Amino acid sequence: MKAEAYDRAGGSDAAHRVTSGAGGSEMRDAAGSGASGVRDSGAGGAGDGATSDVSDGEASGTADGGMSGARDSGASDMTDSGPAAELIALDGMLIDRQPLRSLAKGISLYLLTYMAQGLKVKGYLAVPESEGKLPAAIFCRGGIRKVGMVRKRRIFSMARRGYVVFAPFYRGNEGGEGREDFAGEDRLDVCHAIAMVRNLPEAAPGPVALIGFSRGAMMALLAARECPDAGPVVVWGGVSSLFDTYEERVDLRRMLKRVVGHPKKQLEAYEDRSPVYWADRIHVPVMIVHGTADEQVSVDQARKLGLALEAAGKDYAMELYDGLGHRFPKEDDERALDAVFAWITRKRAEMTGKGEGQRQRG
Q1: Res 173: pLDDT
Q2: Contact by Cβ (8 Å): 294, 285
Q3: Residue 64's pLDDT is what?
């Protein structure tokens, strides 16, 4: 299996292309353009769903059209005073932590409940054994509702790399309040999760890495755009243009029209969910991971995001895995995870160093 990778530091004059196979790796310079229920079985692939990340049948309970509010009909309106305002003031606060049985040796598992936009949102926290604090990462799942639910095995694989890993279910899922809207208001579930994770006793100071799979790529990049404490972002099999997803996935059109609207009528809503249109507003390093045979999110979306980041002069890397689909086989998945967390660790250290330098100069 070959992985084709591009690595460009923002502002540099050259990009690196790496082609690696079983016999080793070859690197050459290329001129840059200058610009709580989960499934606990199955392969250790990156995918969160079965055969499809999202299906119309599972999305039948989502909002009917447009940029509808993320709250259920029974939820209180958000006002400037009263109980609703008091709930909003708790955004980013951990309100419940329950230990769960973990089948992964050396990793503790918890069910967390935290506040986001005045709503109770739930997710899994995986904590590897350590004598000290560990860097933190947030895994942004794909799919919607019951399709693409967080799998324990997935976050265990990440935690084994020496990271505290939190995976939000998103609002309205697994006992949480509200209703998700496919990277609309529910993007704030990730923003407030960053604040919550930074205050965990196991989490080391510093930026929180974001790993977005499929639909989760939109969530992660939106959080990186809007949340100052976001760390480096990994986009894995990620949606970078919801317009393209609408065209590519005929099976998702009914769900997309129901939740987001029609792309011709809800142009702004689609653009806001399409990072290729606002790559210039992403101010953290980005790593793109994609299989060239992905039939759920085409590899063209990865290439377009890379071009947009390149044109904006951003720090990004891209690894394309030849012949792999939306979910990677276990061996390839482990190799990709090694590369991902090595990159995260390096970029997180760079971001921390820059922040310390800025504070000293200030």
Answers
A1: 60
A2: no
A3: 34
Catalytic annotation on 290?
no
Catalytic residue among 157, 192, 240, 326: 326
- 31 touches 17 (CB < 8 A): no
State yes or no: is 81 an active-site residue.
Answer: no
Catalytic residue of the set 214, 240, 241, 298: 214
Burial class (CB in 10 A: 0-12, 13-18, 19+), 362: exposed
Q: Domains of the chain (ranges plus CATH)?
A: 92-352 (3.40.50.1820)
- Is residue 82 within 8 A of residue 118, CB to CB? The reply is no
Contact indicator for 297, 245 with CB cutoff of 8 Å: yes
Sign for the CA dihedral angle at 340, 345, 347, 348 comes to positive
74-78, 115-119, 193-197, 208-212: which has the minimum mean pLDDT?
A: 74-78
pTM: 0.76
Query: Residues for the chain: how many in total?
Result: 362
Question: Which range (61-65, 144-148, 282-286) has the least confidence?
Answer: 61-65
User: In this predicted model, what pLDDT tens digit does every residue of 333-347 receive, in sequence order?
Assistant: 999 999 999 999 999
Secondary structure tally for the chain: helices H, strands E: 9, 12
